[in-house]
Write a structure and sequence with these properties.
It contains 9 helices and 13 strands. A hairpin with a 5-residue loop joins strand 11 and strand 12. It has a 5-stranded antiparallel β-sheet with strand order 1-2-3-5-4. The protein is of the alpha+beta class. Helix 1 packs antiparallel against helix 4. Helix content is about 40%, strand content about 20%. It folds into 3 domains: about 140 residues, Yope Regulator, Chain: A (2-Layer Sandwich), CATH 3.30.1460; about 150 residues, 2-Layer Sandwich (Yope Regulator, Chain: A), CATH 3.30.1460; about 30 residues, no CATH class.
Length: about 325
């Protein structure tokens, strides 16, 4: 199955294109270019009117106040350092980049900027993973990140594991059926794969890990997907890959649900087309009542209905 990109491809292409300019003739971005991403995230790319070599990349996302409590500022300082600047109005994070001062590895730097959303959302995962590795006391209440209007991510620390719960709003009841079938494949795959995370799905009924959570929304069409991440998933080199994949799960699920529905509709249309072809071939040709003379002229008997003015003879 196709995995979605973790970075914003538009930002990456725009920055690589501008870093490739060597004569200093940068096109202005006025007004700033606004880019929409998954999960209601918005990016803005704009240039300084007085210095076109300065480009500002800004991000706005829901639930940022909760992310600040989980150490997002420390994560961003570690990755972006001096590029961080005062956020623009209406945005949560801003990076100021001088295109005339190329970093040592342009491709890596541009990819890091394109991963801004991923790195912002990674902060609570870094914190909880580190607490489990350090064997810190378990916190009773999970971390809640309400990153969409009716959906949230809950990250709960356990003694030797981390439980990540997605609340997913399905607007179409058919999507619930597809999601159950899709997630069943996860459970079946775990039987043949070692160290695979445990995946559970429940409809309307929240899992026990969310018992006592304040303001928990339980509505019709809402599902809960739980991932149980063990030691190998949250430590060492696999930690970064786990964060990448767990963040994109919600969009990954909906993407493949839509692909499955489109595939089924295509098969249904093809089947109907084949049925119509069979029915058309089964139609018999109407019996002809025309009579012709030996010379090939058409005639009708006088007692037959006169259907054409072109008949040559009437008997």
């Amino acid at each position: 199955m196709i995995l979605l990109d973790y970075h914003n491809k538009i930002i990456e292409d725009m920055l690589l294109e501008r870093f490739a300019i060597t004569d200093g003739k940068y096109d202005p971005l006025e007004p700033p270019t606004v880019i929409a991403d998954f999960d209601s995230v918005t990016f803005s790319l704009g240039t300084d009117p007085n210095a076109r070599n300065i480009i500002t990349v800004s991000l706005s996302m829901k639930g940022y106040d909760e992310l600040k409590k989980q150490g997002v500022d420390d994560v961003l300082k570690r990755i972006y350092g001096a590029y961080l600047t005062t956020p623009e109005g209406g945005y949560n994070v801003s990076l100021k980049i001088d295109l005339s001062k190329k970093p040592a590895d342009v491709n890596k730097f541009v990819r890091d900027v394109a991963l801004l959303k991923r790195n912002v959302l990674a902060a609570p995962f870094y914190k909880v993973f580190a607490d489990v590795e350090a064997k810190k006391p378990v916190v009773a209440n999970p971390i809640e990140i309400r990153y969409r209007d009716d959906e949230a991510i809950y990250i709960k620390q356990e003694t030797d594991r981390v439980i990540v719960i997605f609340t997913i709003m399905f607007k179409d009841q058919d999507d619930v059926v597809f999601a159950k079938v899709f997630l069943q494949e996860y459970q079946d795959a775990r039987k043949t794969m070692s160290n695979a995370p445990s995946v559970m799905f429940s409809q309307k009924e929240p899992p026990l890990e969310l018992k006592g959570v304040k303001n928990l929304k339980v509505m019709a069409g809402q599902g809960f997907v739980s991932f149980v991440l063990f030691g190998p998933h949250i430590s060492g080199t696999k930690k970064e890959k786990t964060i990448d994949n767990i963040q994109t799960f919600r969009n990954y699920l909906h993407y493949h649900i839509k692909c499955s529905k489109a595939f089924m509709h295509t098969r249904m249309r093809n089947r109907v087309k084949n049925f119509l072809q069979v029915l058309n071939r089964a139609k018999s040709d109407p019996e002809s009542t025309e009579k012709k003379t030996i010379t090939g002229k058409t005639f009708r008997r006088a007692d037959e209905p006169q259907q054409s003015a072109d008949d040559d003879y009437n008997i």
